[in-house]
Amino acid sequence: MDLTDSRGKPHLSGKVIAAAVILVICILALFQSSTNNAAMFSRHELGVTHVLVTGGAGYIGSHAALRLLKYSYRVTIVDNLSRGNLGAVKVLQKLYPEPGRLQFIYADLGDAKVVNKIFAENAFDAVMHFAAVAYVGESTLEPLRYYHNITSNTLVVLEAMAAHNVKTLIYSSTCATYGEPDKMPITEVTPQAPINPYGKAKKMAEDIIIDFSKTNDMAVMILRYFNVIGSDPDGRLGEAPRPELREHGRISGACFDAARGIIPGLKVRGTDYKTADGTCIRDYIDVTDLVDAHVKALAHAKRGKVGIYNVGTGKGRSVKEFVEACKKATGVDIKVEFLSRRPGDYAEVYSDPSKIYREMNWSAQFTDLEESLRIAWRWQKSHKNGYNG
Ligand SMILES: NC(=O)c1ccc[n+]([C@@H]2O[C@H](COP(=O)([O-])OP(=O)(O)OC[C@H]3O[C@@H](n4cnc5c(N)ncnc54)[C@H](O)[C@@H]3O)[C@@H](O)[C@H]2O)c1
Ligand SMILES: *[C@@H]1O[C@H](CO)[C@@H](O)[C@H](O)[C@H]1NC(C)=O
Ligand SMILES: *[C@@H]1O[C@H](CO)[C@@H](O)[C@H](O)[C@H]1NC(C)=O
Ligand SMILES: *[C@@H]1O[C@H](CO)[C@@H](O)[C@H](O)[C@H]1NC(C)=O
Q1: Centroid of ligand 1 to alpha carbon of 182 (angstroms)
Q2: Residue to probe by mutation, ligand 3, list 145, 154, 155, most atoms within 8 Å of CB
Q3: 198 annotated active-site
Q4: Of 39, 54, 325, 362, most Cβ neighbours within 10 A?
Q5: In Å, how far are 114, 232, 297 from 310, measured between CA atoms?
């Protein structure tokens, strides 16, 4: 018998066995830590508020999740990435990798069974419901998509909250629920008469929430945002809608696309409105202020109460002013084309935000349009393909 051979073999298999044992230990440790992590989300913990952020891969939801994490909340994001970005979730995961801080669940809120399972397996203290489709123009072309993904999905979320005894809800609503009021500024008691499926779907969702909360001792805050712009001042997150949604896009997206030459220029539709310079007037609220309002709303939410608040600056800016700010912020002499009015646009929309100031000491701090756009442009410039680089 060859000694070297017979000694070599057991030696080798010993190494293999040792390696296998180490591997198994590693896998077990990983499994253990991941189950520990899941366990942290599945139990209420004294002093820790666990917030479900639906639509947390989207523009506003990701900024809200970032703020919640910064303020030591435990966050679960549910998003099916139909319009959001996994890249945004990855940024958050990198910033908050510790167990029990952030988890991402890929799921569709239209699937009641799945949503129920998520509520059964996680101990939520509150829900911030951002997930929605949110383009006025698209809503007039595909109304069912809006009633389904706004109204019906909100019902699914509410039913799951009821079944699992989650009592606090912060709901993303919109100034589009007011329609075309006769009087400006818009207060919370301005009658709601939405004029497009987006506004109507949001108004219906509000009504469902309000009716249900009356019977259920819930703590509800409905925030009606005006036109949201801007991005994280530290440049970690930005607004990156799907390219195919560009045509429905919002004015800030169009400004950046024009500055980058993706589109030939900006089209200003309507210069004969009864406003100082003839163009439409809107109230632009910076996303940093907006997420601040959400955190304050969460802190002020009270059982048996529904709080409804406008979230805006209270100051209207004309489209011409916006275009000037966009040119300065980007440093690009964007081509501007003046066209006739687009049907469905109304001359002037701006908020009276005094209620949220009175009751929650919230007011917009980022009121320099050019500065908000400059911050957003910085992210846009360094992320030419959105979160893909
Ligand atoms: N952006 C604005 O100016 C504005 C103004 C007023 C109100 N809002 C409201 O704010 C909320 C967030 O808007 P946003 O601008 O961040 O939009 P967004 O499209 O960037 O984000 C919405 C997110 O919801 C997710 N989502 C949609 N349907 C889903 C489903 N069925 N299941 C799981 N996830 C789903 C999308 O993937 C996306 O990540 C919306 O409710 C919108 O109506 C936005
Ligand atoms: C996201 O959810 C919608 C329903 O709201 C569904 O129609 C769509 O196919 C889903 N998308 C993905 C990528 O799962
Ligand atoms: C919304 O609902 C429609 C069904 O009406 C579906 O086809 C669509 O994929 C849904 N999701 C999104 C994100 O639009
Ligand atoms: C209200 O907010 C302002 C600034 O946002 C802050 O300086 C002030 O201390 C707050 N007041 C109260 C009573 O909390």
Answers
A1: 28
A2: 145
A3: yes
A4: 54
A5: 32, 22, 12
What is the rounded distance in angstroms from the CA atom of residue 328 to the CA atom of residue 281?
Answer: 19
Q: Counting ligands in written order, which one lies closest to the CA of residue 142?
A: 3
Q: Which of 77, 83, 226 to mutate to test the pocket of ligand 1 (most atoms within 8 A of CB)?
A: 83
What atom of ligand 3 comes closest to residue 144's alpha carbon?
5
Ligand 2 centroid vs 376 CA: distance in angstroms?
A: 28
Q: What is the mean pLDDT of the chain?
A: 93
DSSP string, 5-39: HHHHHHHHHHHHHHHHHHHHHHHHHHHHHHHHHHH
Over 70: is that where the pLDDT of 34 sits? no
The structure tokens listed for 20 are 């296998």
Is the Cβ–Cβ distance between 235 and 322 less than 8 Å?
Answer: no
Q: What is the DSSP string of 167-195?
A: -EEEEEEEGGGGBS-SSSSB-TTSPPB--
Q: Look up the pTM and report it.
A: 0.91
Q: What are 169-216's pLDDT values in tens digits?
A: 999 999 999 998 999 999 999 999 999 999 999 999 999 999 999 899
Tell me how crowded residue 63 is: count the other CB atoms within 10 A of its CB: 26
